[in-house]
Design goal:
Blueprint: H1 3-14, H2 20-61, E1 65-69, H3 77-85, E2 90-105, E3 108-117, H4 119-122, E4 132-135, E5 146-150, H5 151-157, E6 164-175, E7 178-192, H6 197-202, E8 203-207, H7 208-214, E9 223-228, H8 234-244, E10 249-253, H9 254-257, H10 259-297, H11 299-307, H12 312-343, H13 345-356, H14 377-394, H15 396-403, H16 407-410
Parallel strand pairs: 3-8, 5-7
Antiparallel strand pairs: 1-9, 1-10, 2-3, 2-6, 2-9, 4-7, 5-8, 6-7
Amino acid sequence: MQPYELFIGLRYTRAKRRNHFISFISLISMLGMALGVLALIVVLSVMNGFQKEIRARMLGASPHLEVVADGGRINEWQPVLEQVAKHPQVAAAAPYVAGQGMLSFGQSVQGVMVRGIDPARESSITDLASKFKLGSLDQLHAGEFGIVLGSDLARTLGVRINEKVMLIAPQGAITPAGMMPRLKQFRVVGIFEIGMAPYDNSLALIHLGDAQKLFQLDSAVTGISTKLRNLDRAPLTAAELQRQLPSELYANDWTHQNSNYFRAVQMEKKMMFIILSLIVAVAAFNIVSTLVMAVTDKQADIAILRTLGASPRSIMKIFIVQGVVIGLVGTLLGSIGGILLALNLNVVVPFIEHLFGVQFLAKDVYYISELPSDLRYPEVMLVAGLSFLISLLATLYPSYRASKTQPAEALRYE
């Protein structure tokens, strides 16, 4: 590109035009581009943060991989535990018992997911030991029938530490009056809070031995839970274990257990990207209209340049420069604003919530109650590059139209 083409294009961008409406449309185009880029960066960062936070909390309260059996019962589980623990990707393994039940305290009744664990091994499988508000996992002892509840579950029942609750299990005995469920009184020895409603609302932990008695499993367990060294290799590890285990056992990893949720988040992220890209597209249409009006306004200047020997390609380059400057400035402003906002979202959102007295994420509706953000610079580069490409494409038609201007026609009425 020759220096004069760049010089004239930049001068047209900076110069005070006779038609102030064109300047206004240029400003709107620039701000529209900036707003679109900012919104894309912030929304993608929030979606990334949401996915990362949910994944961390899910895997902090649940095993990375589980081995279960047909019928939900593994009788000879010790050899299975040893075989699973030998896998190079398995950092720790432990037996567990899972079942459903109902907790009763006073006039309150609540359905719960009961999980029988070995407290000595559980801290190596999940992060539950670090999530306690009151008590600890160490207070679960076989035969003492202690129970640990989620914070929201304890609050719903109105129960406090060291108080006793009635746990009702569906497995029972047949009597002349019909099937009678099993009832057992448990003492609350701990309350945890993970920060995710599904766990805090409905999870109750008891000792493995107490769970075996409650659900009439004798010495059997429901499954083997594991913690993996590399989360991303979970599907491959599950497939390798599946080939080694007996046919009645199944290896189920965390990606399969939560596949619907993570697939929905990924789809939502893609749709939000497409929808918010329309803001950039609208700004690009504004660039087209700005350049079309600029070409009309500069008919005489174009004719003079053509008379002085400028080629149609040079005229086209002049207006491409003008449009690219608008798109480039808008993209840079949006990228800088989006990065700053994404990095400080944990400050901005609470301020807006406090200012207007609203809460964007209710804890009883969403998995988490805070708006997370995970800024990924490759995505910022992708958004900025895409926005700049759209703005560049938007300059082609008006610039081509300017290059077709005939000097004689343009100067006829001057």
